[in-house]
Amino acid sequence: MAGPHPPGYHARVPRYRAVVTDLDNTLYPWVDFIVPALEAMVDSLVATTALPRVRIVQSLKAVYSKYESNEYPFAIQESEIFRPYEADFDSFNALVLEPARHAFATARDRYLQPYPLVRETLDRIRGRGLRVVGLTDAPRNAAELRLKHLKLDGHFDALYTLPRFPLPENVAAEIRRKEEAGHYRSRTPVFELPREAEKPDASGLRKILADLGLDGREVLYVGDNVKKDMPVAEACGALGVWAEYGTYVSKEYRDRLAVISAKKVTQRHVADESQARWPLAISSFAQVLDILDGATWSAPRAAARRGKGAR
Fold it and tell me: Which Pfam families does this chain map to (predicted)?
């Protein structure tokens, strides 16, 4: 057995006690899945309704703009596409909604994957005794279901989202039954923030700090959007880590998303390609572990003056 500690010995106290992370384009490439999933849904609607593609797209965009989210799950039955058929929802559901949902889900299953080493990194962070919390601008419906689909819900201590979308009057009986039975719930405890808590408003992170009983200096905050995520970290005194890899979205996918998504909605979900930078940037989520170990990155200009890079 080891002897007593020498005089003056102090056990190392971890600097950080929690990692708070954004979800979309930080843990998984959101654009890479939402574009083909929405396009597959539109393809299905063209086939089942025989309506012009442009009419379908514009009808959906109107609903997405209303709810300020292109992940509103009931957009089809709330769009003008449904109006000629509203007298008989059941047949519309069977012949139009179900094929569209299946098309979306098939594309989602194919393209929605976490970035490399995300699961392993989340496990290693928690293995060090740190809390892992998600903070997202996505509505509860989409965020919770996405973590469950990716099998990431067991890797978080809590998830904070914007309010869920309630079930509309016109919804399949099976969906209503599953909702009431908790089928769409994840294993992660979920807390809904008010709509006004959308980033860069810092009230979401302040709520997390209060709930965990932590000071901002004890938290590392990871996000892909310099203009939305990093101001949240600054306002709370947390260490902001820019997931720069989350901004690597091809022009083709940006253009395709713009066709189906309202401009304001796209701006909410996808970081722009401006010159805005952040000095502490990572090229892989796994580098969060390096930062927890004390690694830092120098701002480019300062590094150039000293002739040094990362240290």
Answer: Hydrolase
